[in-house]
Write a structure and sequence with these properties.
alpha/beta, binds nicotinamide-adenine-dinucleotide, Rossmann fold, 14 strands, globular, single chain
Amino acid sequence: MSTLLEQSTRVMENIRKRGADLEKYVDMLSLLDRNETLFYRVVIDHIEELMPIIYTPVVGAGCQLYAHLFRRSRGLFITKREKGRIREVLRNWPQKNVRVIVVTDGQRILGLGDLGASGMGIPVGKLSLYTACGGIPPDATLPIMLDVGTNNPALLADPLYLGTNERRIEGAEYDELVAEFVSAVQEIFPKALLQFEDFANHNAFRLLKQYRDKVRCFNDDIQGTASVTLSGLFSAGRITKRRLVDDKILFHGAGEAAIGIGDLVVGAMMADGLTKSEALSRCWFVDSKGLVDSARADLQDHKKPYAHAHTHGPVPDLLAAVKALKPTALIGVSGQAAQFTREIVEAMSRLNERPLIFALSNPTANAECTAEEAYSWSDGRAIFASGSPFAPVVLNGRAFVPGQGNNAYIFPGVGLGVVASGARRVTDEMFSAAARALAKLVTEEDLAKGALFPPLTKVREISARIAEAVSEVCYARGLACVPRPADLRKAIEAAQYQPEYKDYV
Ligand code: NAD
């Protein structure tokens, strides 16, 4: 009989022999089905190597081929046929103490668009990170797909497609199904945190607004992204010696990620003494139609607070916006590749001794610029962060380690904190506290190399610290359902799931 460590070594030996990442993904999912304890041991011990396999970017390909790779179902699929009996469906789930649910409707899976029910790979993958990175016990997690159809013609034409083979339901029919689902969760799993994931832009903002003050929920694409980026801005401030309130941020993109970051930055600036209008005026956005400003009549609600008046005349493109607005930070979240051109990075470097260049669009091929471009076009002065991982860069004999603003730094710790304290709501203040807690864990050595985030290998410790910070907010605001333990840190660490064989000595 092998020990867990021996088995783990064997698994890694075989995984590394696999040529294609997708084969590794399938192997890992099969392991999860076969031996959950071993799966988590392997993932925790090789988190940097395996996170890109079990989550983004490889999970994207896994979702695209979901119906063809399918071996065994995980999680719950809820369709319009279940309307009127969603409570019953949830009650049939074998685990009763569900604490974290990740739900999607598959309409905007990563940057891959509408993958319908094939998007189930995302809740499954994300919840495996709640367990591996945060320590939420696996039997307390529940992946859910609201299978409301798909408008993806390739899926509708695929005879193996596993979802509802119809176009998406919309409007009142969609809203009623979501409403029944949310209320059923409150009844059947009253202690569960509900995380909305990969909903299309229009539904993501709407659903968050509708439910954030009513139930224990959040949207990671909006709030988790915001928190990790805010943390990067805090860490960058330790290099520039500038406070957040002294930054002026230009966003390329004005969607879930961009507005989420803007809103959290505004809150953090207000907490640091600015008025709301002062804080809003520090954030500017360029979307697919140009600069978001008060002259635009075509703006969706979430962009309107940032539609400032200005006297710069026409601002036709991003370069013109950089020259007119003179930002200290440029954040790319448009999903469009190569938008931070040499001219733009050079203009940022003329304006700032240490320009902040965050190229957050995923996957790697969509990044606004590469780490090497940011460093070389700024003569090594750019403070760079990315959405996808970039290898270290050596420039004129100096090594730079680009930081990856991975949401996995934040959501597992937030989840752990919400579960530990029994938070009744998930607030932006908690995401700000998470950002500060993460930034505190960045060492001077990390910063000297240009890394704005601590190594991912420390993610369980990071999650425990974030959980503590989130719980503190929860207790301070009277949102807790669990009495405060004498030693909060210890209690949180003790609650983290450890993959071990219980009966094996
Ligand atoms: P979204 O669809 O909600 O928003 C995209 C925005 O980009 C929209 O406002 C759109 O108008 C704008 N846009 C599109 N083309 C443009 C162009 N040519 N010029 C200017 N603006 C343009 O998507 P999202 O959820 O906000 O995600 C955007 C990107 O951010 C994706 O690539 C995603 O991978 C990335 N992201 C990164 C992280 C991270 O690094 N942790 C987290 C979340 C999202």
